[in-house]
Amino acid sequence: MVMQLLSTKLNDYFGPFHVTKSNKYKHMKKLWILILMSTACSSGVRQDDPQAETKIRAVMAFQQDAWNEGDIDKFMEGYWKSDSLQFIGSGIRKGWQATLEGYKKSYPTREAMGTLAFEIWQIIKLSEDAYLLTGKYTLHRANDQPSGPFTLIFRKKNNKWVVVYDHTS
Q: Does 30 reside within a domain?
């Protein structure tokens, strides 16, 4: 059924494909046009980023370093700067600004921030421009060491991998 429909549409556009000695070059030209058109149409599809996992790990390392420098603003560069960002901790925070304010309220001093260590458990490709990262964070502080699992969704935005969803327990 699909092939019949496709054949009908091709015939409507290009005319019948009855190849004879006299028209074989004409049909070859039509075939090349069809191949070029299909290639042009598929080139709009997002291309796979072979370095995606490496780049996502680099974002995690960048955030860990920024945190350990005591720079929450720099740490936030790893997040999507959008009102659509979601951060789930003890509740749901929506938006980059709300997430930044939440971090600054929860970690007002360098001592409260401690030293951050990430342990990446797995990175799973969801689509060409989306990855799921699961891991564990640990804050090394003078009086305690809070830690727990987290799940992040990374998306490629403006040619940059950023966290668009963060669920930290």
A: yes
